[in-house]
């Protein structure tokens, strides 16, 4: 119990830091999950977000209590479809049509929910899933997109698939050598072509913390935005943090697929507060402060210098 209490205090401290910084930064969003040890009433969450000028939210499902709380708020919403529904939606277009009717169309009314994106699955090609969703994700996406289009919603919202940055990689940490992971390359090429043909965005979850977690020799400062660590030159561009390098690795992977201008959304970015020697409130605050300063400048990455679209996720690695 003492450990759980400490975790909540640490997480709460970082949340308050992010909310304080949010008062000075506009245009970013936050992730809102409904799995928590002490869940708040959705009406309270919506009010808290709006009071702190956060007007974009990404959900992991279409929970009716949460959706109803968002109705009339004007907040831009990315509605999520859990991975466990992908097979059902892939197998039968009627199921996708019913899902859209019940979870999207039902909220498309005056003073309804301002739905901008529908996230089909969440990191379905993560290697830890051992290919469980390889055969169902793309068919589910196509069925959902078709159902949205048939319902007349595609003028105001887009379907997408939040992928983990693990779906692409680069040799020698050089973004210019980026390409999609070999075991998912063909399906990713099929998906990004569909995205391109239908003007859909690519959504990616980027976690610089994982570089430290997975590699004990990773240069710590390269995970942050202070520019105090090493600088990696690559193809005429200089990278002083792993977030930029990771993002531009995706850009290069898309370029190699023949796609030059696809919109990219960072669906999740964050830093944990517990569970690892680098997962501390102090380092989490450092990461978020650096990220928020970056967002406040409306600058992107060396390859994509335009303003980034980002959804934060404040979390702990302990359960």
In short, what is this structure?
Helices cover 37% and strands 16% of the residues.
Provide an overview of this structure.
The structure is a single chain. By secondary structure, this protein is α/β, with parallel strands linked by helices. 37% of the residues lie in helices and 16% in strands. The strands form three sheets. A nine-stranded parallel beta sheet has the order 5-4-3-2-1-13-12-9-6. Helix 6 links the parallel strand 4 and strand 5. It is globular, with a radius of gyration of 19 Å. Residues 1-12 have low confidence and may be disordered. Belongs to the glycosyl hydrolase 17 family.
Give keywords.
319 residues, alpha/beta, TIM Barrel, 9-stranded parallel sheet, two-stranded antiparallel sheet, 37% helix, globular, disordered N terminus, EC 3.2.1.39, glucan endo-1,3-beta-D-glucosidase
């Amino acid at each position: 119990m003492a450990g759980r209490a400490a975790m909540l205090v640490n997480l709460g401290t970082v949340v308050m830091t992010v909310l304080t910084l949010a008062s000075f930064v506009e245009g970013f969003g936050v992730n809102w999950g409904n799995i928590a040890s002490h869940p708040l009433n959705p009406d309270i969450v919506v009010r808290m977000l709006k009071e702190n000028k956060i007007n974009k939210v990404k959900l992991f499902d279409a929970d009716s209590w949460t959706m109803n709380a968002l109705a009339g708020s004007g907040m831009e919403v990315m509605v999520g479809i859990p991975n466990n529904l992908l097979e059902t939606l892939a197998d039968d277009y009627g199921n996708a049509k019913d899902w859209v009717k019940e979870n999207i169309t039902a909220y498309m009314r005056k003073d309804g929910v301002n739905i901008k994106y529908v996230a089909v699955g969440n990191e379905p090609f993560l290697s830890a899933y051992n290919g469980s969703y390889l055969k169902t994700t793309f068919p589910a996406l196509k069925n959902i997109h078709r159902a949205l289009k048939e319902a007349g919603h595609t003028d105001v919202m887009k379907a997408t698939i939040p992928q983990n940055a693990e779906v692409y990689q680069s040799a020698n940490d050089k973004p210019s050598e980026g390409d999609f992971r070999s075991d998912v390359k063909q399906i990713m090429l099929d998906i990004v072509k569909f995205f391109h043909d239908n003007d859909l965005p690519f959504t990616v979850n980027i976690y610089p913390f994982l570089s430290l977690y997975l590699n004990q020799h990773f240069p710590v400062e390269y995970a942050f935005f202070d520019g105090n660590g090493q600088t990696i030159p690559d193809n005429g561009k200089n990278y002083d943090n792993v977030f930029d390098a990771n993002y531009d690795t995706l850009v290069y992977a898309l370029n190699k697929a023949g796609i030059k201008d696809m919109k990219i959304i960072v669906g999740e970015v964050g830093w944990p507060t517990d569970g690892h020697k680098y997962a501390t409130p102090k380092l989490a605050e450092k990461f978020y402060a650096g990220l928020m300063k970056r967002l406040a400048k409306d600058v992107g990455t060396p390859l994509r210098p335009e303003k980034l679209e980002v959804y934060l996720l404040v979390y702990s690695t302990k359960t």
